[in-house]
Design a protein that fits this description.
8 strands; 8 helices; about 15% strand; three-stranded antiparallel beta sheet; Rossmann fold; five-stranded parallel beta sheet; globular; alpha/beta
Length: about 220
């Protein structure tokens, strides 16, 4: 099975990608991890990515394409994987579709995690971070023992700028603008699987597995 996993900020996409990879026996291909591996390798592509990161810029699509394609070639045609963080827009989806035949592989499904807007706002705005050790908390799901104070080092917790309501709305709008054309792209190809992603992590995982025919009755 070869999958693409999509979801807005706060949908739990990264967590679900890791859990799904473990349960279904897939290689988890996270864009962030792939870029870090390329940079640490000291390769020419990694150096280009490092130059962008150190300059405070986004890695260009062309460099990202080369890095992703190289990683997919390393896997070989017999490997199963889940792509997490790529593609992020229609242009990237079209690139992926164009290179897959030369690799002898194809995408079996694109899983879209669907979470109501109000839930995303609640999940993202509730995050708090320790000003010293960086430990993360959530006011609703994993609160500190003492309000506003880190359990580990006793320092004050703060809210990141990106987690404030106005910034969250901007992030979600940017996600919608980039993702909606890609949703249509995969729906038109009969590859889109939409998952209601409210509830516990294990519950959401079971919905994904069931939708892919890998539920408890279908798994070995």
């Amino acid at each position: 099975m070869r999958l693409v996993l999509m979801g807005p900020p706060g949908s739990g996409k990264g967590t679900q990608a890791k859990m799904l990879a473990e349960r279904a026996g897939l290689t988890h291909l996270s864009t962030g991890d792939i870029l870090r591996e390329a940079i640490s390798s000291g390769s020419e592509l990694g150096s280009k990515a490092q130059d962008a990161v150190e300059g405070g810029k986004l890695v260009s699509d062309d460099v990202l394409y080369d890095i992703v394609e190289a990683r997919l070639r390393e896997l070989g045609s017999d490997k199963c994987f889940i792509l997490d963080g790529f593609p992020r827009n229609l242009r990237q989806a079209e690139f992926l579709e164009a290179i897959l035949p030369s690799l002898g592989i194809g995408i079996d499904a694109t899983v879209l995690l669907d979470v109501p807007r109000e839930s995303l706002l609640r999940r993202l705005s509730g995050r708090r971070v320790c000003s010293r050790c960086g430990k993360e908390y959530h006011l609703e799901f994993s609160p500190p023992k003492v309000e506003g104070v880190c359990d580990v080092c006793g320092q004050e917790l703060y809210q990141r700028e990106d987690d404030k309501p106005d910034k969250i709305e901007k992030r979600l709008r940017m996600y919608d603008e980039a993702t909606l054309p890609m949703v249509k792209f995969y729906r038109d190809r009969g590859l889109l699987v939409e998952i209601e992603a409210e509830g516990g992590m294990e519950d959401v995982l079971e919905r994904i597995l069931d939708s892919l025919g890998q539920g408890k009755q279908g798994r070995v």
